[in-house]
């Protein structure tokens, strides 16, 4: 499937749109930068892509189980004019290539360029697709017929974990890669003793916590 833009949001499904009467499926939503690949400063060059240890193996296992895996990524660097969609697409192609070497693939990639400090036409004070708002997840859920109430988010930031509330997910897993160390205490404070938020130091722990 070719990528498309829906109200300015990049959407790249890797399978045809599910019929409206198809059964709903739980899914795994993944942050990209700092979760699937090592965090960079507005990373936008294929040569800078490094998979985080364990990410490909975990995604490959969900693939074997038939669980859809969707990358949802804020890309304010596009909105700020630091790089363009061609650079993002080339970088994502390298992510896909490295995942494939590990026997893994994702079912869709969704990217939001909107930000309060972006340049027009991407300047928006609180765009419904920018995490922690649920727009990207709902877009994927509509296309792939996903059951958000049985789906999980895995990410390194507080905004990722807030999707548990905004998208009404089954739960979230916070990993210690990327912004993980910075945000862990912030998440514990935001979700005191919440049974919906799990904490993982390694990808193998994240795999076990996300019950899909």
Number of domains: 1
Q: What amount of the residues lies in strands?
A: 15-25%
Q: What overall geometry do the principal axes of the alpha carbons give? A: globular
Largest sheet: 8 strands, mixed
How confident overall, as mean pLDDT?
96
CATH topology: Rossmann fold
Q: Helix count? A: 7
So, the CATH homologous superfamily? Answer: HAD superfamily/HAD-like
In helices, the fraction of residues equals 25-40%
SSE succession: EEEHEHHEHEHEHEH
Counting helices, strands and paired strands, the structural category is: alpha/beta
Strand order of the largest sheet: 1-2-5-4-3-6-7-8
DSSP strand count: 8
Distance between the ends: 25 Å
What does this entry show, briefly?
This protein is 33% helix and 17% strand. It is of the alpha/beta class and 212 residues long.
Offer a few descriptive terms.
212 residues; alpha/beta; Rossmann fold; 7 helices; 33% helix; globular
Account of the protein in words:
The chain is 33% helix and 17% strand. It has 212 residues and is an alpha/beta fold. Strands 1-2-5-4-3-6-7-8 form an eight-stranded mixed beta sheet. Helix 1 (55-65) packs across helix 3 (85-101).
Helices and strands, with pairings:
Layout: E1 4-6, E2 9-13, E3 28-30, H1 55-65, E4 69-74, H2 76-79, H3 85-101, E5 108-112, H4 135-144, E6 152-155, H5 158-166, E7 171-175, H6 180-190, E8 197-200, H7 203-209
Parallel strand pairs: 3-4, 3-6, 4-5, 6-7, 7-8
Antiparallel strand pairs: 1-2, 2-5
């Amino acid at each position: 499937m070719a990528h498309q833009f829906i109200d300015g949001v990049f959407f790249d499904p890797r399978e045809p749109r599910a019929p409206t009467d198809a059964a709903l499926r739980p899914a795994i939503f993944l942050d990209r930068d700092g979760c699937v690949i090592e965090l960079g400063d507005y990373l936008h060059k294929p040569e800078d892509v490094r998979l985080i240890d364990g990410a490909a193996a975990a995604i490959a296992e969900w693939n074997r189980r038939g669980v859809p895996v969707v990358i949802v990524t804020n890309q304010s660097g596009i909105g700020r004019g630091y790089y363009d969609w061609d650079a993002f697409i080339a970088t994502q192609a390298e992510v896909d290539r490295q995942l494939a070497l590990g026997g893994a693939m994702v079912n869709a990639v969704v990217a939001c360029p909107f930000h309060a400090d972006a340049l027009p036409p991407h300047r928006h004070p609180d765009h419904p697709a920018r995490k922690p708002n649920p727009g990207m997840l709902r877009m994927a859920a509509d296309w792939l017929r996903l059951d958000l109430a049985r789906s999980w988010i895995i990410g390194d930031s507080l905004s990722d974990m807030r999707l548990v509330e905004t998208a009404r997910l089954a739960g979230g897993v916070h990993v210690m890669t990327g912004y993980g160390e910075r945000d862990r205490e912030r998440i514990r404070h935001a979700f005191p003793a919440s049974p919906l938020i799990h904490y993982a130091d390694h990808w193998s722990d994240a795999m076990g916590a996300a019950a899909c």
